[in-house]
Amino acid sequence: MTLRLAQYDLPKHPTRNLALGKEPMTLETQTSTQPTDEMVAQCAGPIDDLIQAVGSVVVGQEHMVRALVIGMLTGGHVLLEGVPGLAKTLTVTTLAQACKAEFSRIQFTPDLLPADVIGTLIYNPKDGTFTPRKGPIFANIVLADEINRAPAKVQAALLEAMQERSATIGDTTYSVGDPFLVLATQNPIEQEGTYPLPEAQIDRFMLKLSVGYPTKEDERVIIDRMMSTANLEPISAVISIEQIGEARAMVNRIYVDDKIKEYIVSLVHATREPTEYAVGWKLDLPKLIEFGASPRASLSLARAARANAFLDGRSFVTPSDIKAIGMDVLRHRVLISYEAEAEGITSEDIVNEIFARIAVP
Known about the structure:
The protein is α/β, with parallel strands linked by helices and about 350 residues long. The protein has helices at about 1-5, 15-20, 25-35, 35-45, 45-55, 60-75, 90-100, 115-120, 150-165, 200, 215-225, 240-250, 260-270, 285-290, 295-310, 320-330, 340, 345-355, and strands spanning about 80, 100, 105, 120-125, 130-135, 140-145, 165-170, 170-175, 180-185, 205-210, 240, 290, 335. Strand 4 and strand 5 form a beta hairpin. The chain starts with a helix and ends with a helix. Mean pLDDT is about 85; it is low at about 1-30.
């Protein structure tokens, strides 16, 4: 295992660069371009404090907390799907409290209008002018609670701001700020009176998390911790916007080897053209996949893997980082066929099959 990890750490070994016909990297060059594990671990300290602060309130949802932090570190939006009562909203609000960042919450309802999200122009009768009033979308962390309860035009207004990082009020376009993170929740079991997000719009979310029930032990801890109203007080902020910016800059410097990039491309391409990979599929993927993942999936995999390596204190990405976050990146981007639905096969089954069959570098 040690030898495998070493091959993804090329910038640390000048002699290997010579073997590739490149100039050796000096210590100064390494420091400015490729961080060491010690530098990464030091920069990740405040992020670890953030995760621990959220974990002091939310019990049994470690993966959800980690995925939300990965979204924050990469600027990727996150969609949380799960039945009511699984602490989705609590986790997001606690994360916002632990950051010295501007936070807003939008409760999506059928009568919501786009102006309720992005803002509108207010007429001043005294001087006959219009004054822009910005909506709740102008914040660092935006919670879109029960996003599938609002009509398509409201969802489109939110998703446009997510993609463009700006919103237009009247004739003026305003930046929504930086960092800007949308965390949306939706209930998968109650579809009456809802407006499901189109697949093309779901693709705007970097990660889609399937939030499950806590274990029996975790649920007992929840009762002990949350039974008293005294434990419902907001937590104190443990990290600033500047520290988040520093961590994001460090994530962008995490090294991704060419073999890792090829692995990412192979995984995503296998969702589109599984017949090109003679690996003995257990499932008949060509008949089960209606549409494969877009190139946005490849970018999201690479970025999320960098953030995962950062949280583990490593300065380089390994295949384990891809597998750790791959399901959350791909589950909503692989569209299954009617045959798959008839056989009870989900997109998660297909993603697991692809990860099991595509060779790891």
